[in-house]
Amino acid sequence: SSGLFTAPNFYVAESSHDYVIVGAGSAGCVLANRLSEDTLNSVLSLEAGPKDTWFGSKLLMWKIHMPSGLMFNLCDDKYNWFYHTTKQKNLNDRVLYWPRGRVWGGSSSLNAMVYIRGNALDYDRWANEGATGWDYAHCLPYFKKSTRHSLGENDYRGGSGPIGVTRPQMENPLFHAFIEAGQQAGYPYTDDFNGFQQEGFGPMDSTTWKGMRSSASVGHIHEQSVARSNMSAEVGCLVTRVLIESGRAVGVEYRQDGEMKLARAEKSVILSGGAINSPHLLMLSGVGPADHLRSHGIDVKVDLPGVGQNLQDHLEVGVQQECTKPITLYKWQQPRNMARIGLQWFYNQSGICGSAHFEAGAFIRSRPGVTHPDIQYHFVPSQVVDHGRERVTHEAWQVHVGPMRELSRGYVELQSADPTRHPIIEPNYLSTEQDRWEMRECIKLTREIFNQKAFDEFRGKELRPGPEYNTDRELDEYVREFGDSTYHPSCTCKMGTDSMSVVDPTTLKVHGVSNLQVVDASIMPSIVSGNLNGPVLMIAERAADLIRGRGMLAPA
Predict the structure, then answer these.
(1) For labelling alongside 548, which of 120, 231, 322, 481 has CA 20 to 30 A away?
(2) How many other CB atoms are found less than 10 A from the CB of residue 155?
């Protein structure tokens, strides 16, 4: 029993629970809600950041809950781990910025609210890679359970789930021009990227509801579990170590308000810190590659060589085109107009500020013979420069475009045994010739789309890359100078049964440790073809049923 563990004298407080969940991000919020639905379970949620409300109000925390305010939180570390990669040798030695949510809702409180599930074949590939039970037929019911769609329920969409998903209004004519241009270039139209056919050009659903962000904390904490007496949600807690005794996780130690505390877990410690924090905490706790842990003076509990390895992400570039008509977001981004549209949103959560403006997109194939789309477009009727941290200068539209199944693999490693020091993040971008070819192809295909008739009445000069970038060598240089993360880190504690896997796909328990589970983007065996928030919500919903030992939803 957990009584085996004797707490050192320096813990100023101790508590005991059935489940201790580390991280109140997209997965952690789902688990806190679902596990506390059983009134006999006591659940403790530990979040490093603050709540996403101020005096109980979401409107007072408008930088999170106003959809168009998403760029504000990328500029500092208030709600953000503010991670940075190592120098990327294939990106002109640039250090890339990786924002990650450090607040209730995690990255679902910071992201661009794009709701994309990936392709059905991604999940069938997971099953083939050793993630038994995670094929698309078994995942689809949990995608549906996790959401409620503004257009109602069908074979693919959920009708009553906690996370609101809204079909965009697409009032700006540039969205329609983009979708029409795609069809003129020979690609299909699809009315739902998460439905029967992912491939094509069409509207892009968002995790917004009635003009506000529909984050995991809004859906699962505010509206569901926070009032339950069997669920405690603590904030400002840096978990420093999982306590493992005789091969069993018995609890965690954490620092809150400068004091060290102990939380015991009778049933399970569940790590939901995401693809950086979960492997980081495992390694700090003695679970990971033995030689690496010993080199930092950490006592090895379990030699698991896959912890922190297999890091995957999506790299993208921006292609910007000047717009000859004053119909982009440019005028609304001027200080004199921002107050007006902001007040409208505060009044009734409507207008320009009620959207994140990534309302159209596309999924296409880079070449014949590819099994399913491997290039993704996010279209926005605005410039976005340096993660939105630079002022816009032109009436322009832009796509963020990049390959979705890159071959490059990286890792997360300890920089130090000090839990307050960020880990080393090495994504190893563009380390294969295929990845470099695909990035070039993304730009070439985009130019072809932007040159279609649908854009004739709006098209000014190309701003980025610009006419000086044409040859393969020049396009490679553009990618090296301006390629950036799509913020999709994943796969660092992969599900499976091979020697590099970290968790058991049927229980999500860490190999070699009882009562310790991981539930977040890190357990993906390989990255999916799209954004990651929707898939993580699904993973957590399915994990909750696995952990509770309930009957699983019938495969679709």
Answers:
(1) 120
(2) 9
Pairing of strands 516-518, 259-271: parallel
> Are the CB atoms for 111 and 530 separated by under 8 Å?
no
Q: What is the pLDDT of residues 145-203, one digit of tens each?
A: 999 999 999 999 999 999 999 999 999 999 999 999 999 999 999 999 999 999 999 99
Nearest to 27 by CA among 339, 499, 490, 512: 490
Backbone angles phi, psi at 74, to 5 degrees: -90, -5
Which helix or strand (DSSP H or E) is residue 344 part of?
helix 335-348
What residues act catalytically? 488
Whether 363 and 198 have beta carbons less than 8 Å apart is answered as yes
> Smallest Cα–Cα separation from 545: which of 134, 35, 140?
35
Task: Report the residue count for the chain.
Answer: 556
**Count of alpha carbons within 13 Å of 422, Cβ hemisphere only?**
14
Q: Is 430 left (phi over 0), alpha (psi -120 to 50) or beta?
A: left
pLDDT digits (tens, 9 = 90+) for 270-321: 999 999 999 999 999 999 999 999 999 999 999 999 999 999 999 999 999 9
For 278, the token pair is 């979960």
Q: How far is CA 427 from the centre of its chain?
A: 16
User: At which residue do the structure tokens 């009315």 appear?
Assistant: 191
Tokens of 168: 């965009």
d(CA 535, CA 527): 10
| C-alpha to C-alpha distance for 113 and 165, rounded to whole angstroms | 9
